[in-house]
Amino acid sequence: MAFALILPASRPWIDVPSGEKAVAEADRVAVMLRADYERWSRWALGLVCFAGSALGVFVIGGMLDAIAALGGEVAPVDVIVIAIATVVALAGAVGLVRLWLTGRTLASAATAWLRLPYRQGGRARRGGGWVLARTTNFDPPIFARLTTATLAFLLAIGGVALALRDLAAGSFVGLSATAGVVGIIALACALGQAGGVVRIVSGVSEGDPLWHRLRSAFVRSDG
User: Fold this and answer.
1) Distance separating alpha carbons of residues 107 and 50, to the nearest angstrom
2) Taking phi first (over 0 means left), then psi (-120 to 50 degrees means alpha), and beta for anything else, what does residue 124 get?
3) Is the pLDDT reported for residue 74 higher than 50?
4) CA distance 13 to 15
5) Percent of the chain, pLDDT > 70?
């Protein structure tokens, strides 16, 4: 079967209905949607798309610096290489955006189904929910996303800092811009992955009585 960003089996459950039948299906559907979101293939595709976009941007920046160093002379091969690198970078960026959009859809739906039995079905929140909410981050697919999100954030700091340093020193070149662009892409990836994890953990935390009391108090304080 061809790869799909959202599996066909998940699509009918993206919108969360109400009623006793929906509550009865909630646990099964939440597990299915989480499994769809947490697929290793989605995570691996994100790595490939990021690597492609970063590589494309670096090649473009390097070629532009090389052309500038040679006095601005552009050979046909230079144009071809830059064109190919641009296609690769754009393809990677489009892939990252689609992964983010579909991941947000799946994570939001899974979170809604996780909350449904507590909000509409009268399921009691218990101490076990406190434990589960705090161990979810160590589930292998979630932990892998947290790890790559952290690494992407560190890369973002380094790339943006390098670009700003060169800009302040008056030595801003094509590779400086490249570092800044890759840093921005890395920051977007970090926020996207972390946001999905936060959504999932928030849904699991619905069974935590302490989290529910704190959240309820915060909502009331906002009026």
Assistant:
1) 21
2) beta
3) yes
4) 5
5) 96
**How far is residue 100's CA from residue 85's CA, in Å, rounded to a whole number?**
23
Give residue for tokens 């406190």.
130
Tell me how far CA of residue 54 lies from CA of 67, 105, 160, 176, 217, in angstroms: 20, 25, 14, 13, 44
Number of neighbouring beta carbons within 10 Å of residue 72: 7
Residue (of 83, 145, 106, 133) closest to 9 by Cα position: 106
- Residues 6, 37 contacting (CB under 8 angstroms): no
Paired tokens of 132: 């589960």
Torsion of CA 75, 80, 86, 89, to 10 degrees: -120
For residues 187 and 162, what is the distance between their CA atoms, to the nearest angstrom? 14
